[in-house]
# Entry
Amino acid sequence: MKTCKLNQFLLLSLAFSSANLAYVAPAYAQLQNVIERQQLQQHPNLVNSFADIVSMRNAINHPGRFQTAFLNRQATVDKALEQPINVPFPKDAGGGYTHEVHKNNYRLMYEAGILFQITQQAKYAEFVKNILFEYAKLYPKLDLHPEVKSNNPGKLFWQGLNEAVWLVHTIQAYDYVYEFLSVDDRQIIEQGVLEPVALFLSEQSPQTFDKIHNHGTWATCAVGMTGYVLNKPDWVEKALYGLDKSGTGGFMRQLDELFSPNGYYNEGPYYQRYALMPFVTFAKAIQNNQPERQIFEYRDQILLKAINTTAQLSYNGLFFPINDAIKSKGIDTIELVHGIAIAYGISGDTGLLDIAKQQDKVILTGDGLKVASALDKELQTDYQFVTQAFGDGADGTEGAFVVLRSDSRNTASVATIKATSQGLGHGHFDKLGLSFYDKGAEILTDYGAARFLNVVAKFGGRYLPENDSYAQQTIAHNTLVVDQSSHFNGNTKVGNQHHPKVNLFANTENVKLVSASIDTAYSGIKLARTIALVTVADENIDWVVDLFKVTSLKQHQFDLAYHYDGDFIESNFKYKPNTEQLKPLGDNNGYQHLWLTAKGQPELNQPISQLTWLNQNGRFYTLSTVNHKNLEFLFTQTGANDPNFNLREDKAFIFRVNGQSAHQFVSILEAHGEYNPSKEFTLNSKSSIQSIRYEQQNNINLIYVKREDMSEFVIAYQNQLTKPQPFEINGKQYMLNHSAELFKIN
Amino acid sequence: MKTCKLNQFLLLSLAFSSANLAYVAPAYAQLQNVIERQQLQQHPNLVNSFADIVSMRNAINHPGRFQTAFLNRQATVDKALEQPINVPFPKDAGGGYTHEVHKNNYRLMYEAGILFQITQQAKYAEFVKNILFEYAKLYPKLDLHPEVKSNNPGKLFWQGLNEAVWLVHTIQAYDYVYEFLSVDDRQIIEQGVLEPVALFLSEQSPQTFDKIHNHGTWATCAVGMTGYVLNKPDWVEKALYGLDKSGTGGFMRQLDELFSPNGYYNEGPYYQRYALMPFVTFAKAIQNNQPERQIFEYRDQILLKAINTTAQLSYNGLFFPINDAIKSKGIDTIELVHGIAIAYGISGDTGLLDIAKQQDKVILTGDGLKVASALDKELQTDYQFVTQAFGDGADGTEGAFVVLRSDSRNTASVATIKATSQGLGHGHFDKLGLSFYDKGAEILTDYGAARFLNVVAKFGGRYLPENDSYAQQTIAHNTLVVDQSSHFNGNTKVGNQHHPKVNLFANTENVKLVSASIDTAYSGIKLARTIALVTVADENIDWVVDLFKVTSLKQHQFDLAYHYDGDFIESNFKYKPNTEQLKPLGDNNGYQHLWLTAKGQPELNQPISQLTWLNQNGRFYTLSTVNHKNLEFLFTQTGANDPNFNLREDKAFIFRVNGQSAHQFVSILEAHGEYNPSKEFTLNSKSSIQSIRYEQQNNINLIYVKREDMSEFVIAYQNQLTKPQPFEINGKQYMLNHSAELFKIN
# Structure
């Protein structure tokens, strides 16, 4: 009888796969389960459906990316399985021992689960079962974690967030081994740990579960998927529509509110990629279990837009590091690997394969297999990075994060302008902040977050005190500070109530331009900035034009900062360096962290002041600004009042105007030349710009740029251009046909 | 008759190549020359023989690396040839306009010359002819260059060195087009420019031509090759044996003296790769013209050793940046591309192909073709980086540059110890200096040179004043400074007269060790350092053990500096940070450039003091040193007294002992853990080392290392071990069988 059943199983196996059968030897009762399960096809059915499993079982027998990834993963997991099971009593905060062990456990369960499905080797299921037995013993004993710091506490972990992530992985692992387990096994595990964790994350943590925030997304994802696996439709409903099922909380409301219509996430790309994971994971599970919900169609395909926008918000593989961002995070982050795979599975867009190829990671899912097979066939086409204003807010009207790109490559010249809303607690006070990227490198920099993720010695791996005292402050960004105080006085709540207005966005061949303004960052003061990326290869033009206008009724001090990466080369004005002593530039709002390294005034017999630096990418950058008698230049560098050496080197030029009620800074950053010490040549290390002048003709703004070779250009733009507008230069008539255009006038 | 000759030519062409004949249309007289030349096979015959040309003509018709390189080169040169010929009157220094134009001209002539040979298209020869006509007109008018700064003046260039490089390229170009030119053309060019330049470089610049120095090598190479092409055997003799042909100067003496027996070049790898070019170029020309000289066999194949040593003196593609070095220079430098190609042409060593593959550059020479074809066939094998003491000086006894490697990969753990002689004017005062590299990155750093090569705004692109005042000074290096003064009082002449002694070099499986000492760096003071690279993968051991002993009869201040790259993480002792004000650490000898950022004392209730940092490579590094009541720790950073912001950020820990006549610093640098913000985990951010102790038993040195997990190890070593030596620990007997060994004692 046993033999007969075994043969039946083997035949079924052969029908589904040609995996190595020598390894297949589960015990009888489990075999019975497996057979029923294959007939009913109920498990697994979260991110991977049973059809996905069948495809993967087949794919591992054919050479290619997927087989390679599978074999690597199997080797890693096999080695890990040699270690004894370790489910320690929770003790440590992020980065600490028990924290890392529990993180490792859920990863390992997840991977062992999928390996069980693909290989049908009992050892993987046994491992998941045994470790879950340990959790089922441990969990009922737990109170809140001893290191709880946030208002989203956990039990296994110091944060409920980690607890939710644990369940997101663990419920998938459980789903994979479900059919392997006896009814008694299931009862022990479900009652001992899965249900209690799900209840802890939902009923017992309503403040997080119903919150429209990425912590809420993880929680709803975890609980909703648990609802599918444990056949509790009520949990799925709560996950989708909130604990009271009214729709005021829950996953659907998160989909409505956390992304703008074009898929921008309020906290910026660093948190966007993190938030993405539970969104795409739960959505895929919904799609597999309840396709009638058409979750990927919801809100005009908002999830696909969010995935695509996450990829768009990157430069040379790394995310734009606005707000609290770890700067080394990029498109190869595992969350986006899942996102791209799922998006490709739905859309078949071959441009996504280009991103997948750069990610160079194959995941063991049905969509991962589709991506791997397509890359094996080299089906990828160039991903098109675009110039776009990513509207912020649920309806896309709360300002925008604007990305101006010279072309579609990921190493093109790119200016970004942060005219977004605050971005909640991880938001920085950097309204109208500018960043610039060129030839693969960050040129005008954003500090990102002050944090050593999970390094216990550095403030427990959490955000450092200097994140508040420096990284979030306005002076740490490339924007304007009034009277040495930060936007909204550095108050997040106030910041959350306001956002800049985007007045003009133009995308023409040679000029990509945005104008934005805000009058709430400082009481009674209006800030307005226009940034234009102007590129003409034939003319050697690679400029960022920057007009920053500040107006007030009272006199103030205005500081416009430019943080740069590179070696200072020269200025065209004299400055007084502080060679024998350094002192901080101020007492608070970030100024206390800046050493003042030099100070200078413009030479007023010259039309512009210029500062040149050389980036590691081998290109020179010159910042030229129109001179003014009230202008002075400060050179600064981080390091003051940093007793634990928590801050990185961050150098800046600050353009300062004092005792004025208004000022217009008119500047151009020019990318030029090449420094090639390997091939031993240097080209065009001097800026080509000789003068800059700004004027208005009626409603048309004109920026004149004259170069050393006497060629002269005008960038013209106008808000709300409804029909072509004429303007005149030196008696000659010109016509502005688009909102922003470049004219060669000499 | 014309038709007949043309047919004859075509037939000959077909015999030698299947190049695209549609392009072949030289004028009649030139055809006649070409035909004669192909029969006589006298030109070209410098780096490329005519047989090489024939191979290349064939190779460009077959897809592969060579064809690709050829087509790229041709496209570039074709574009350049569209520009008008430009031979300006010399005016600018390095990096300036006329300097770069003349550099570009010789490159272009060289490339057009070889393209003429390969394609047989007249336009390339025409170009070389026309530009040489211009030089023939210009050169007789020239006095010394107006910007002459060095004692090796030029006419076309500010330095005679550049003039020699110009001729090295130009004589090859002339050789390529020789047969194309009429007798009259040749006379104009040879008399107008080639002969005058050769005479200027030899007879008229005896101080350089006869100098045993890389400037002399370029000059002899240029003049010698000109001798071959212009059939002036006398010039060849002078190039080989000096102006008086006595052998006291010239190329052969340079071969005898500039390299040590294992191919180390006195000035270090940065200048070694530069010096290599004329050596291998001239040698190849000698080989082709006078194979009977067996130049590549000379001095036990010294040139092949020099080429190989240049590759060995690199880490992760970049040269060890000792002495005046531009740090971005690496094995892909064009000089080493030529070197590797020539070495491969002679030896057929497939390990060299591994280097060539990393270089990713194909040169249009016969040897370049051999390399390209071999790479097309994937014949490369792993290049073996080795642990080696590269003896310095003509007989290899003037100290050594010692490279200790954990394994043969180019990203292994590597410690280098600079126990070399001074290295002439580009040498730094860094006797017994240590550098450490790991996981692809520089961990204990060498500043290299303070220079922005060819950037006119930065001191004309020359070595900056800070090169003398900081980069060359002892405190800028990872070695010991007595009384805040540099080795040899910073006097190069004195430095040139002395060198350290290497007392022990051991290369065993787990311990690579060197002991070296010098008693002339400071009067009456002996410095002795032992560095051991200890690696045991199974035990998670990745250590650099560092014993620095200084002894004197009088009391002094001893500063042992460690310059590091990375973010400071923590110390296990308290320090007082200078948060509100920074001041320079000293007044001169490099100290004036260091801001003192913090100061601390060891906690004497602990056995060791520890300092941990995190490198960009994602690994933690902890420097542990045995405590002592007189010890203090200074944290420093460059930037003081640097009015032009010429210095890079360079951070250091300085271990200081004051008022002692002797001290032994006993320290270990441990590489540990992983910081992975992309995958969001951090492992082993804390050092595993708990205590370190040093003792001597008879002549055996023992360094005890106890770890947090209570495991304990001893590194034992003895100078001049002639037979196994016993020693005892806790009553247990051990035997030292090799000069240096690791023992696990607990």
About this structure: The longest strand of chain B covers residues 541-564. Confidence is low (pLDDT under 50) at residues 1-29, 31-41 of chain B. Chain B is about 35% helix and 25% strand.
